[in-house]
Design a protein that fits this description.
This protein is of the alpha/beta class. The protein has one domain (about 5-165): HUPs (Rossmann fold), CATH 3.40.50.620. The chain contains seven helices and five strands. The chain has helices at about 15-25, 45-55, 100-115, 135-150, 165-175, 175-185, 200-220, and strands at about 5-10, 30-35, 60-65, 115-120, 155. It has a five-stranded parallel beta sheet with strand order 3-2-1-4-5, with helices on both faces. Helix 4 (about 135-150) links the parallel strand 4 and strand 5 (about 155). The longest helix is centred in the last third of the chain and has 20 residues, at about 200-220. The two termini are about 35 Å apart. Bound molecules: zinc ion. Zinc ion (ZN) binds near residues 187, 195, 196, 199 and 201. Zinc ion binds next to helix 7.
Length: about 220
């Protein structure tokens, strides 16, 4: 893969930034694509742009605001509170089919760039009810995209079977632990680095980070 081009689906968050570092190690030429779907915090796109600039990869924003015409959810509508789903319910951040749409658009973009490798930070381990984050869906979409465009795409999902603790471990192996800790934006309230410390996303991130550091200390 060292001689080939890749496109990373990139949001400036912990997961996709870890994927970006992974891609930079695995591929000769790396591009990023970011989706603007009216996120509560355009800070997210600014953050992604800065990281792409710093790491020397191209940055392309696709306007996906049309997904707001399809469903109302907490990431794009400021009048809906961010909360975890009750048991058996999806979280309020859910946009049905979002990953499906984003990956499909990313594949068209990759084809234009002459790249057949697509990298996405989806993960089945912390599965919070998003069916289009599952491995079986990604494999199915890979076949569909190849048939749709008569191409030989390969969708890579380096985080698919990792929990948050292991994602931090991967960041460390890629010599990017402190970079990702300080520069990325995962917080639902738009605060970079360690974030607000209170939203579900910050808590998941912090717990994983602490668990990884504890394990590293024990092993040292
Ligand atoms: Zn937060």
């Amino acid at each position: 893969m060292k001689e080939e081009k890749a496109v990373v689906v990139f949001s400036g968050g912990q997961d996709s930034t870890t994927c970006l570092f992974w891609a930079l190690k695995e591929f000769k030429e790396v591009h990023t694509v970011t989706f603007d779907y009216g996120q509560r915090h355009s800070e997210e796109i600014e953050c992604a742009r800065e990281i792409a600039d710093e790491l020397g990869v191209s940055f392309h924003v696709l306007d996906m605001s049309l997904i707001n015409q399809l469903s109302a959810n907490a990431l794009t509508r400021s009048d809906i509170e961010v909360k975890d789903g009750e048991e058996g319910e999806l979280p309020s951040t859910f946009v049905a089919g979002r990953n499906h749409l984003f990956l499909s658009f990313a594949a068209v973009y990759a084809r234009e760039m002459g790249a057949r490798h697509l990298i996405t930070g989806v993960c089945e381990t912390d599965f919070s009810g998003y069916p289009d984050c599952r491995d079986v869906f990604i494999k199915s979409l890979n076949v569909t995209l190849n048939l749709a465009m008569d191409e030989q795409f390969v969708i890579h999902t380096p985080l698919m079977w990792l929990n948050k603790e292991q994602t931090w471990e991967l960041a460390d192996q890629l010599d990017a632990l402190s970079y990702i800790q300080e520069k990325t934006l995962t917080c639902y309230h738009g605060i970079r680095g360690d974030g607000c410390g209170e939203c579900p996303s910050c808590i998941l991130r912090r717990n994983g980070f602490d668990a990884y550091l504890r394990r590293k200390e024990v092993q040292a």
